[in-house]
UniProtKB/TrEMBL annotation:
Protein name, as recorded: RNA polymerase I-specific transcription initiation factor RRN3
Disordered, as annotated region: 1-37, 269-292, 588-617
GO molecular function, one term: RNA polymerase I general transcription initiation factor activity
Annotated signal peptide: none
Organism, scientific name: Varroa destructor (Honeybee mite)
Pfam families: RRN3
Biased composition (Acidic residues): 588-604
Amino acid sequence: MASLVATNETPKPVQSRPEFLTPQPVPRRDGTLTQPATSSGIIHTAMNFVEVLSEASASRAFSDKYRLILASLKSIHTGVRSTNSIPPVQLLNELAKMTSLLDGFNEVLVVELFKFKILSLQTDILAAYLHLLVELARSNTFHYDEICRLLLSTMASIEDEKPPEDQLDLVHKALQQMIQELPHFSDVLLKQISKCLPFMTKPWSQQVNMYRQVLRIVDYVPTQLSLDVLSRLVHKIIDLDCHCPKEEMLTMEETVDDTVATQFTMDSAENDSTIKEQGPTKHSSKIGSDSQPSAISICNREMKHSLGNALDRLMELLFEYIDSHVTGSLDEAKATYRRFLAVFDKYIMATYKCLHVQFLMFYICSKRPLFMDHLIDFLWHKVQDPNTPVVFRQISVAYLGSLLSRAAFVSVGTLKDTLTLLSRFLHSYIAQSSSAQLLGVDVNRHATFYAVCQSLLYCVAFRHKDIAESTNGLEFLRSLNLEQLITSPLNPLKIMSKSIATNFANVSRHYQVVYCHAIIERNQRSALPMAHVAYGPHNAQTASGQTSQCSTIIEGYFPFDPYVLIRSRRWIEPIYRHYVDYLSSAGDLDDDEDEDVEEMDDETSGGGGEDGSSRSRVMKIDRQTSITSASPHDASVAMSIVSANSSLSGQGVEKLFAYSVSPGFIH
């Protein structure tokens, strides 16, 4: 039999459950009480959160209740919940009532709050959490940066093509409430947007989702803030556009037959920036045609160029945004146009050789004629404003000429009216310069004149058929008095892009408006370096006592050259005008040139039937005779002409008479 051994130890009393953990009955509406909750669903109505937080802040120590609150917060974002955890919705609602206590020692709770993964929360928990963030922002401006960073980083973390729209709607509702109620919250939001926009090398899906959410912010923020936010977005896309060279993207594409080139069918914008002539590029035989693609069957495939593919997706997103805002009410369309026009003026026009972003304005103008007329007027005022820097006047007229030529929605009447303004400006410029005795080939002095003249001739060469077929079209071309511009001492054909000058010469000869080939050939001969001494404020003598004739060629840059992005091209193709060679083929032009040469030979030989060699001998003898009979000074000049002609005789006919080829095939 086991014996009982008495001990001196007193039995420990059974510990009672803390009062705040004891389930309490909840009264119903009819006055009856509900049954106490089980351990898995405890409702902590007896806990005084204000007392717990105040005591912790005063004693600088964690009590059991405080540890329970902290553990319950951690369980929300970790997903590991204990049976004693406070229900998430109740906890967040209680903390929202005492946000003024969430500072100092209690900031440990705020740190846990900012660790939440918003898109992983259930809808009811997310609503309570966002309400807590709004109350936290109201109580202390110190939390603005962290709240903005948390919400924007949530948008930037979306990589799925179909984001959770219900949860994002709650996030935007909370952001909108804070923007409306908190004065300085907008400034912090704008700064955080610039920081949280994904880098260009991030996956395109992440970039598109982030930009889509930021465009939603543009719609509900104040006017000035919406402009600033849109500027941040477009500026990032411009950076991406500048990292996507056109040749590099076309080289990486397999279907180069569907691509298009620039200007009249040649990529001469880059070639004209240098003085030397370059041959056709590697893909000139395929991408060197400005003909309209037969079908856009590849519009849904990905581009091989990773950055180009991201740019393509972002441009498609912006086109969708513009389409949804411009096709609605007129007031909304005007507000959207004004925002994009301000961004266009501040960022897009100031970017050198931007390739695709400017087509946003191109597309907006196609939606309403009012926008097209306003943009033309906006650009023209910049061109003729003497207070505008010269470089921006040149860029403005380049945009103007490219818009008039490439936009299918620009009528012939608008084209003719604008060309009239350009020609009047040029004639007035020549008259003022001649009165001041400032005429002469000088790019630095007359840069605006040359840019305006190049755009004028570009438009005439590009849309000559539309002008000629309009009412009194040929009379209109003659009324522009282009001959006075071409033959002026400023000699614009010598300074402008060679391809544009050549195409205009072919068009003007076809309509017998002005004959430019002789001037072009003379300019080619005068391109040889000449040593002379000149004095004056604008012809300063060099260190060696010599100056050279200004032979710089202004760049043939026209911003609305063909669009090469694949997916977003479908928004541009229906409203875009591709270059079509309406003139005769190259062979016909060569035949015309041969006929002109034969007529000149007949006149020289007196209409006789001598062959080509005999005629050349007669011309050579006459030239030598004139040399021997002339004065010594004239003889030296004539001898230099003979030597120059003999040096040119070794060149090929195609190079010597490069201006005689058909428009659209200039290399």
